[in-house]
Amino acid sequence: MKDCARTTTPGRVAAPLCIVAALMLHAGCASDPRQGYSSKSTFPEDIRTVSVPIFRNYSTTPGIEAEVTEAIIKEIQRSTPMKVVSSGGDSTLTGVITGSELRRLSVRSGTGLVQELAVQITVDFDWRDTRRGEMLVSRRGYTVSDTFVPAVGVGERLESGQHSAAQRLAKDMVSEMRGAW
Prior knowledge:
By secondary structure, this protein is α/β, with parallel strands linked by helices. The chain has 4 helices and 6 strands. It has helices at 4-7, 10-27, 64-79, 158-180; strands at residues 49-51, 56-57, 83-85, 91-107, 114-129, 134-148. A hairpin with a 4-residue loop joins strand 5 (114-129) and strand 6. The radius of gyration is 24 Å and the shape is flat. 21% of the residues are buried.
């Protein structure tokens, strides 16, 4: 005689359990991302395109505007549902690099040689809905920094520090775009 418990296949039990778990998970989500967990995008749904003209550079570091602008464009393409267009988008992200500096973080005792530096980039930026003329995000004096090690043995170049600071700036700016609306 067969045992009733053994005739039940794992698939017959697992399928209803998965459905119940999915329904419970969905019930715990909010329809508005600002009010709890949600499966919706945290970017405005009516903005599908963004234009990013090259940032102006008022710092003393030539060429950093191209690297910062490129990093921001790539980050928008990578982590948002928006498409980057050359002009005429639903929105425009403009910015000015107001400062780019090196900060000494550590010095070798005995020689006084710099062991670790930070590249610090400061920007002012505005993200504007071009259809309605509405300001979506506006930040002044927005500063990020990232480190590199120019010391003998490691010998990272200044360009490496600038590149990593531009990447960090791009990620942080896109996070500001996400959280501000």
